[in-house]
Amino acid sequence: MLISLEEVRHVARLARLDLDEAEVMALQGELSALLGHFADIQAIDASMIEPQSHAVALRNVWDADVVRPGLTRDQVLRNSALTKAGLFVVPTIIED
Amino acid sequence: MPTELTAAELGLRLARREFSAVEVAQSYLDRIARLDSHYDAFLTVDPEWTLAQAQAAQALLDRGEGGPLTGVPIAVKDNMSTEGVATTCGSKILEGYVPPFDATVIARLKEVGMPILGKTNLDEFAMGGSTEYSAFKPTRNPWDTGRSPGGSSGGSAAAVCASLTPLGLGSDTGGSIRQPASLCGVVGFKPTYGRVSRYGLVAFGSSLDQIGPLARTVEDAALVAATISGHDGRDSTSLPNSAIHIDDLKSGRLKGLKAALPRELFSDALQPGVRSVLDETIATLTKEGVEFGEVDIPSIEFGVSTYYIIGPCEASSNLGRFDGVRFGPRAEADESGHVGMVERTRGRLFGKEVIRRIMIGTYALSAGYYDAYYVRAQQVRTMMRQEFDAVFRDYDLVLSPTSPVVAFKIGELSNDTLALKLTDLCTIPVNMGGYPAISLNGGFAEGLPVGVQLIGPTMADERVLQTAWCVEKALPDATRKPPMP
Q: Fewer CB within 10 Å of terminal CB in chain A, N or C?
């Protein structure tokens, strides 16, 4: 296995995914198989090649500074499972 | 019957008042109601919404303000935002989500009066190649309902194939328009990255995603491409002067055209039936005057690895917004607080393939692995681009199979995730370079369609469409339809 169970749990925490033990075990095998497949690109000499993040490079995309209508607060909140007084409700983040 | 016509013919006859836009929309809605239980191509159909749009289209026609597709209906993949109509991305995490805005492509369809028939099925968040990873249901291939239509735009491809709609929109990150077009025997076109706005397309791999049409003929696909393309200030990757012009669609010629055949895309990975159809297509086109030459594009071999790093890295970031707070259902809060609520919402509502991709992307971007995976994949992306650009200095186009395999049985590959990923071999390099490419039906292997892919250089969308129009005329089976139940 190219990735340990502890690493799978660590990555799941980074990705904010609550997984049960059966899922962690399955992912260990699946991710190891994929990482094994990636060995092909690690073997090539790419030291002189610039990495490319986009297919069609655009630089300095500016937009006119014009006020346009946006969504209303009601439209923004309408899809939330829990709102109150015009705000999204989340569990307590800062303790007293 | 209006449902037997191509979109181009339908548009002409609507303009001549032979049908009304409402009659056309109604005849397609009736067909969907009668037949979609065989295919499960649609996730949402809302006749009231469609007919209201058809009335608006008829008003345009009545005022003489219609264009070539005014009144012609279209089906849209369910990862494009439609104001007031559910947009699920095939995921439980967006169940019940109703967007407060239209994607730019939807706004353009409405402007020209193209009524939307419904939202079509897809692999969850467009991650997959079979439409089996939809959280709601698999879609079935109209050529053989025991088989997959491909994916991820499998709902739109199957709907076009079964004449449940004259036209469809899909999105293509690693082949998700072209591969289902190939497996369903229809036309699928991915424009140059940046020619169609991604505003309102729920993002998967932002540097790769591109919206494009599925249709029964090249002309129909070209008409949609011309309708939805063009610069959009709301997408910062939208190219200037990006409108696709199709006035010269039918003035291309095959004689003297130089087409490259990359050896890496004609490898042993091809099924023998796929190879025969490609051989016959090449022979036919040679007779028409196309000059073929074999070339090497060695980095194609690394395409699958490169794609399954870059795509998931971008997805792991893009899907961070699904936290249960602003949209979709959420898990109950408990003593684990906010983070626990977010983790349970995501862990329970994302499907297995989406979780795999978020995990691989998060791993590849994490400290200590970033250079080995993400940066390396971006370097290979540069190599691939340089090799393709070198081929385009000597050739007008590249020709290849769209998929190494014909439609596979439902369930055959869904548990073998690597085998399923290898079916993207021929389509991935196109997204890496942002090139325009089209798939059209080359013929049949054991009764199942085999797609031929034409790839052009950046911004040569017009050349790709013109050539495809000529190729379609030269191939006897290009627009054959499946038997209907």
A: C
Q: What DSSP line would sit under B446-461, residue for residue?
A: TTEEEEEEEE--TT-H
User: Is the complex ipTM more than 0.90?
Assistant: yes
The confidence score (pLDDT) of residue B271 equals 94
Residue with tokens 């607080």: B337
Q: Which residues of A touch B355 (CB under 8 A)?
A: 17, 19, 23, 27
- What is the spatial distance between Cα B55 and Cα B24, in angstroms, rounded to a whole number? 11
**pLDDT for A71 beyond 90:** yes
Q: Per the CB < 8 Å rule, is A55 touching B208? A: yes
Q: How far apart are CA A34 and CA A28, in angstroms?
A: 10
CA–CA separation, B307 and B431 (whole Å): 9
Active site residue B77: yes
Joined together, the tokens standing for residue B150 give 């491909």
Q: Model-level pTM greater than 0.95?
A: yes
CA dist., res. B32 & res. B166, Å (int): 12
What is the length of chain B?
485
Within 33-62 of A, beta carbons closer than 8 Å to B belong to: 33-35, 37-38, 40-42, 44, 46, 49-56, 58, 61
The fraction of chain B above a pLDDT of 70, given in percent, is 100
Q: How far is B263 from chain A (nearest CA, A)?
A: 19
**A80's tokens:** 């939330």
B176 counts as catalytic: yes
H or E element in which residue B158 lies:
helix B154-161
Which residues of chain B lie closer than 8 angstroms to A41, CB-CB? 302, 305-306, 309, 376-377, 380
Domains of chain B: 2-256+397-474 (3.90.1300.10), 301-377 (no CATH)
Q: Hey, what domains does chain A have and what are their CATH numbers?
A: 1-43 (1.10.20)
CA B250 from centroid of its chain's CA atoms: 24
